[in-house]
Amino acid sequence: MITHLQDTLTLNNGIKMPGFGLGVYKVENGETVVNSVKTALKHGYRSIDTASFYDNEEGVGQGIKESGISREEIFITSKVWNEEQGYESTLEAFDTSLKKLNTDYLDLYLIHWPVKGKYKDTWRAMEKLYADGKVRAIGVSNFHVHHLQDLMKDSEVKPVIDQVEYHPHLTQAELREFCEKENIQLEAWSPLKRGKLLDDPTLTQIAEEHGKSTAQVILRWDIQNNVVTIPKSVTQERIIANADVFNFSLTEKDMGKINALNINSRAGTNPDSFDLK
Ligand SMILES: NC(=O)C1=CN([C@@H]2O[C@H](COP(=O)(O)OP(=O)(O)OC[C@H]3O[C@@H](n4cnc5c(N)ncnc54)[C@H](OP(=O)(O)O)[C@@H]3O)[C@@H](O)[C@H]2O)C=CC1
Ligand SMILES: O=C1CO[C@H](CO)[C@@H](O)[C@@H]1O
């Protein structure tokens, strides 16, 4: 279990990744994303999650540069978007992301969604990028168990990670069990359900008992469940507070109560009903 903001988990290809990071979906390119990234890095974050779809890779790159922290200390994730999928187009999309991020390698590159008929060719391109040493690890996002099984049956490299929607209302039991068995790390997107969980009475009560906020309780629950978490905020105080979750522990009883909040409810789209053509 990670015990500090900069602690790392070891992925199935042996590389290390921080268990906690900053998400930047819907963070405007330019000053807003530059400042969010700089604030996070200044306060100990070492992992940033972006995507070509977020249209802010330039700002992320600029924030990293202006932070003065060396590139090797920072773990950068980006993702290939649905329209970019396919063998050649993924290689091109990757190069575009590198240029925008102003870096010569990525730490982690993900297939953003399992586009039917495309994700296997996309994966072959990811395997090439990995073999060529342009990316330290490759993984997927929004893959259900059946997508993972389909991908893995004819691929050489196993995904290191599956980044999916995960929070107390969506605990992904089947996927978690599968990933644990296959040594694929689970990573939580929308860990705070985009703010929709923060008034939950069970979480509020647990938060009061620990002298913490509900957001901090949720993020601590991720960590204790061994799920990588990447809360997004553009608000300086929240970026700092969200990471202040390494000085308390939830009890087994707290964990049980939070696990029991699952209602299989999503803030985003179910990968099986997304129009992924
Ligand atoms: N792979 C995928 O398909 C997806 C990946 N992601 C990734 O996951 C990241 C996180 O998910 P996201 O959807 O952004 O949602 P989150 O669950 O991280 O919630 C973000 C929202 O919560 C608010 N917030 C953050 N911290 C606090 C706090 N302490 N108290 C109150 N409100 C708070 C933020 O407001 P404010 O910013 O105003 O402070 C923002 O409105 C994304 O940014 C992205 O990197 C997300 C969706 C899909
Ligand atoms: O990363 C993402 C951010 O959120 C979007 C809207 O839910 C998703 O479609 C996308 O995958």
From TrEMBL:
Pfam families: Aldo_ket_red. Signal peptide: none annotated. Keywords: NADP, Oxidoreductase. Residues 29-262 form the NADP-dependent oxidoreductase domain. PROSITE patterns: ALDOKETO_REDUCTASE_1, ALDOKETO_REDUCTASE_2, ALDOKETO_REDUCTASE_3. InterPro entries: AKR, AKR5G, Aldo/ket_reductase_CS, NAD(P)_OxRdtase_dom_sf, NADP_OxRdtase_dom. Belongs to the aldo/keto reductase family. This is Aldo/keto reductase. The lineage of its organism: Bacteria, Bacillati, Bacillota, Bacilli, Bacillales.
